[in-house]
Structure formats: structure tokens, C-alpha cells
Design brief:
A seven-stranded mixed beta sheet has the order 2-8-7-6-5-3-4, sandwiched between helices. Strands 9-10-12 form a three-stranded antiparallel beta sheet. Helix 6 links the parallel strand 5 and strand 6. Helix 1 packs antiparallel against helix 8. It folds into two domains: 139 residues, Alpha-Beta Complex (Aspartate Aminotransferase, domain 1), CATH 3.90.1150.10; 232 residues, Type I PLP-dependent aspartate aminotransferase-like (Major domain) (Aspartate Aminotransferase, domain 2, 3-Layer(aba) Sandwich), CATH 3.40.640. The longest helix is centred in the last third of the chain and has 36 residues. The protein is built from twelve helices and twelve strands. The chain is α/β, with parallel strands linked by helices. It is globular.
Length: 385
């Protein structure tokens, strides 16, 4: 099957560049020839592009433009938040949920090897949600930061951020949320958080550009030094061109948000309705009210999720078994294990994530081919001597 016929349903890993974003990038390229830190005309023009992108993205987030720092992506932003506490002379206690992206969870575990730093991993329930009670119980006098993602990249679970933030505010603990899967697609409220992180390529923006929000008045220790760029929060020449693409992707989703959310919710329902009677089907994502509309994680007992991914890929349908940052390991998803799934069920699971270009025909084709391959693999399994 040719690339033009690809049915792409892995937008939580990365979303194809929106045509409107590519057109905007081509149009602005002549203005992005200078270094934004240079005082000459070319530098001033590049600076204008950069600051316009910052202003537009900040407006979407409802925060002051000067509170946003551009980075290379979500993983760098998450590392920057956690690693600023690594050299503290005082005891440091970090609290993270057990279902965080590896750039948070693995970073926290690495930092916990330091003698002055400890972590607590918050458990989640069967739907992947953190309970406010467990967070409250985990806080200590030395707790420095709590990090809980806005929505899970594998299951789509939407965390009860308002309640979690309120608990941290009452105890004087700083709060970080990885908003990579929600920013732009859903409205965000960062009024109570101290740090927030996001990236462009989940929105159909360019790869290689992300953001870090630092609440005004919150101390921050930069991890990349050697220059005064980004208000001394991240050294290095800013990429004004990619920042413009990020802003254009955010603007596109802001204009089409209601339409996309309704469309994705319909696709999700269609897929669920069509899979309920399939042998061995089980659902990992939470109920619709607690889940991203564009994300669905499910499996078929007794089968291999990897086998289904390969079978669909051979027919030009791209889906995944979990996080793109860890799925190459072919191990059971830590997110699903944290939700209480056993290893066999976790390895039998798939993630479907819709995007701007997903059509009803794509969903219908996926459903038909999934039903076919599940029957085929079950038959093959039961026919073995």
C-alpha cells in the first residue's frame, strides 16, 4: 500500500504536520534568517516572529507570554522541571504518578539514586486515575514537587487536576503537569500550577519545539546554561521558525476544537460499539467523561497486541501498543500494569489515537480489519495441536 493510502491512527505518538502549518512555515521562512538575539534588522525580524509565537501560545494557555520558555520538546521540558532539584543541599521529596510519561517517571527514578532525594509513586485505580486522598497521604514536610500529567498518552485518562492542585496549594507544594496530550486540543487552566509542559508535534505542529511554563514568581534553575536566551531559563539560539509552526498548530486546533472533539467522540463510540462482541475484548481506557475523546486503549485476551499491530501495518493501518518512547522494547506497558492488568493482558493491548485527518471511513476500515484479524488469530491459536 502506498504512503498516500496510509490510515494513520497513532496521533498520540506524533501527528502529521497540518497542511495549514506547513503553508505558514513556508510563508514565514524569509523572516527567520537571523539570530533572534542579534541587534540588526534580520535579528529583529526573527525576534518579532519568536515573540509573536510566544504571545499567541500564551493567550491559548491563559498565561503571561514571559512565563513561557521554548524548548526542544516535551521530554526536555519535563527533565528541566525535575532536574532543577537534583543539586539541592536540602532533602528533596518528589511525588509522581505511576503512569507518567517515561521522561518524568524514569527521570524521577534516576534522581532518586542521589542520597538527598527520594520519590513516591502515586498508585492509580483500574481506570488509571490518581485519587486526591492518595496524594494527600503521600505529602511530607520535605515534599518539593508533585508531578501528575493532565492526560495519559496511552489510555487517555484525564486526571482530576483541579483537586490535586488544590491539595498542593494548601500544603505549599509546587505542582507540575505534563500537558502534552491536552494542550491545544482541550482548554487548559494553569492558574494554580507552578510548571506545565507541552510540545507541538502532538498537534500537527513541527517536531523539535516544545514549551515550559514557569509560574511568575516561581524559582527555576536552568539545566542548559551558557547564554541568556529565554530569560536565562534555557541557553541556546531560539528556533523562531518552529515556534511559529507551534503557534499555527495551536491556532488551528483553537478554531476547530468543538468540531474535532465531537468527531473524535463519535469515532470512539463507533469503535467501542463495534468491538463489544468480539471474543476476548476488554477496555483499558476510562469512561468517556474521564478520557480524551481521541484516545482508546483496549485488548483481546489470549492474543498479542504486537501481532495485531504488524497485521494492520501490512494493510496500511498504523496503530500502536503504547507509548512511542517505550513501545520498541516490546515489554508489557507499565501504565497498564499500574492499572492492575496482568502482563498477558497488557501485552495483548492496542492504542488507537485519532487526529485532524481521521475520517469515518478510516474508523470503519480499522474496525473491519480488527474483527477479521482477531478471528483469524483466535482460530489459529485454537487449532494448534
Amino acid at each position: 500500500m502506498s504512503a498516500t493510502q496510509l490510515v494513520y491512527l497513532d496521533h498520540n505518538a506524533t501527528a502529521p504536520l497540518l497542511p495549514e502549518v506547513w503553508e505558514a512555515l513556508q510563508a514565514v521562512a524569509p523572516r527567520c534568517q537571523g539570530n533572534p538575539s542579534s541587534p540588526h534588522r534580520a535579528g529583529r525580524e526573527a525576534r518579532a516572529v519568536l515573540e509573536d509565537a510566544r504571545r499567541r501560545i500564551a493567550a491559548e494557555a491563559g498565561v503571561p507570554p514571559q512565563s513561557l520558555c521554548f524548548t526542544s520538546g516535551g521530554s526536555e521540558s519535563n527533565n528541566a522541571v525535575l532536574r532543577q532539584f537534583a543539586e539541592s543541599a536540602n532533602p528533596v521529596h518528589l511525588v509522581v504518578s505511576a503512569v507518567e510519561h517515561p521522561s518524568v517517571l524514569e527521570t524521577a527514578r534516576t534522581l532518586a539514586q542521589r542520597p538527598n532525594l527520594s520519590i513516591t509513586e502515586l498508585p492509580v485505580n483500574a481506570q488509571g486515575l490518581v485519587s486526591p486522598e492518595s496524594l494527600s497521604a503521600a505529602l511530607r514536610p520535605e515534599t518539593t514537587l508533585v508531578s501528575v500529567m493532565s492526560a495519559n498518552n496511552e489510555t487517555g485518562a484525564l486526571q482530576p487536576l483541579t483537586e490535586l492542585v488544590r491539595i498542593c496549594q494548601a500544603r505549599g507544594v509546587r505542582f507540575h503537569t505534563d500537558a502534552t496530550q491536552v494542550f491545544g486540543k482541550l482548554p487548559v487552566d494553569w492558574s494554580g500550577v507552578d510548571f506545565a509542559t507541552a510540545t507541538a508535534h502532538k498537534l500537527g505542529g513541527p517536531r523539535g519545539i516544545g514549551l515550559l511554563y514557569v509560574r511568575p514568581g516561581t524559582s527555576f534553575v536552568p539545566q542548559i546554561t551558557g547564554g541568556r536566551q529565554e530569560r536565562v531559563r534555557r541557553a541556546g539560539t531560539e528556533n523562531d521558525w518552529l515556534a511559529h509552526g507551534f503557534a499555527e498548530a495551536v491556532a488551528w486546533h483553537s478554531r476547530h476544537r468543538e468540531q474535532m472533539q465531537a468527531q473524535w467522540a463519535g469515532f470512539r463510540k463507533r469503535l467501542l460499539d463495534g468491538l463489544q462482541d468480539v471474543d476476548g475484548f476488554f477496555l483499558n481506557s476510562p469512561d468517556a467523561g474521564f478520557c480524551l475523546a481521541h484516545t482508546l486503549n483496549f485488548g483481546f485476551r489470549g492474543l498479542s497486541g504486537e501481532s495485531l499491530v504488524i497485521a494492520l501495518d501490512l494493510e496500511g493501518i498504523a496503530v500502536s501498543t503504547g507509548s512511542a518512547c517505550s513501545s520498541g522494547a516490546l515489554e508489557a506497558s507499565p501504565v497498564l500494569l499500574a492499572q492492575g492488568r496482568n502482563r498477558k493482558d497488557a501485552k495483548a493491548s492496542l492504542r488507537i489515537s485519532f487526529g485532524a485527518a481521521t475520517t469515518a471511513a478510516d474508523v470503519a476500515l480499522l474496525l473491519a480489519r480488527l474483527r477479521h484479524h482477531v478471528r483469524r488469530l483466535h482460530s489459529k491459536r485454537t487449532s494448534k495441536p
